[in-house]
Amino acid sequence: MRVNHRKMGSKQLTCKIGPSILNADLSNLHEESVRLLADGADYLHLDVMDGHFVPNMTFGHPVVKCLRAKIPDVFFETHMMVSNPEQWITPMADAKVNQYTFHFEATENVPLVCRKIREAGMKVGLGIKPKTPVDVLEKYIDLADMILIMTVEPGFGGQSFMYDMMPKVKWLRSNYPELNIEVDGGVGPETIHPCAEAGANMIVSGTAVIKSKDPKQVMEDMRETVEKELNKCC
């Protein structure tokens, strides 16, 4: 696995590709995950939906825990599209999740959720929906390890990429040059360039990778695109 770094202050930015398994064959979740990792995935992006915060349901902590038992050493990010993110912190920590990403819109107490996630031993991811302005995150940046900018409406795979979300990514990268910034939704070979140019360094891709005839090549091409942008300031 090739990894490039961009030295910025005391921290290094890393290009990471995290396939979303939302559109994979969930009856063969372990096999699908192993295949994606063998093809070069850096981490697995696990979409958890409750049918309330978003109008769809996927799976919960029991499935994640079973997958962890079969894949013990891979970085798991759970993208919690749920109405009560605090409720699932302990179960996901028990499932040995590495990063718990929740939505700003799902809680009235972002600091409390961030603190409980960190106390449970997980990294903190904080995401916003497309209609949420990015500057609402300003006072919470120091509480998070990563910021997620949704480039589709959360809840379903296969949606069209929203190019008008890129100014949010640019704003974050300009103001927080060492921040891990993730994009999720409609990201693939046709849309990776604006993501990379805006400053995203963590790339979630579902349909474009999983439905591809050559997932390995797709991930390599996206990584190369992001690395070129990371290298510009080296």
UniProtKB/TrEMBL annotation:
Pathway: Carbohydrate degradation; pentose phosphate pathway; D-xylulose 5-phosphate from D-ribulose 5-phosphate (non-oxidative stage): step 1/1
Catalysed reactions listed for this entry: D-ribulose 5-phosphate = D-xylulose 5-phosphate
Catalytic residues as annotated in Swiss-Prot or TrEMBL: D47 (proton acceptor), D184 (proton donor)
GO molecular function: D-ribulose-phosphate 3-epimerase activity; metal ion binding
Cofactor list: Co(2+); Mn(2+); a divalent metal cation; Fe(2+)
Residues at which substrate binds: S20, H79, G155, F156, G157, G158, G186, G206, T207
InterPro entries: Aldolase_TIM, Ribul_P_3_epim, Ribul_P_3_epim-like, RibuloseP-bd_barrel
Top enzyme category: isomerase
Binding site for a divalent metal cation: H45, D47, H79, D184
GO biological process: carbohydrate metabolic process; pentose-phosphate shunt
Bilayer-crossing regions: none
Cofactor note (record): Binds 1 divalent metal cation per subunit.
EC number assigned by the record: 5.1.3.1
Keywords from the UniProt entry: Carbohydrate metabolism, Cobalt, Isomerase, Manganese, Metal-binding, Zinc
Alphabetical list of PANTHER family matching this protein: RIBULOSE-5-PHOSPHATE-3-EPIMERASE
Family label: Belongs to the ribulose-phosphate 3-epimerase family.
Protein name: Ribulose-phosphate 3-epimerase
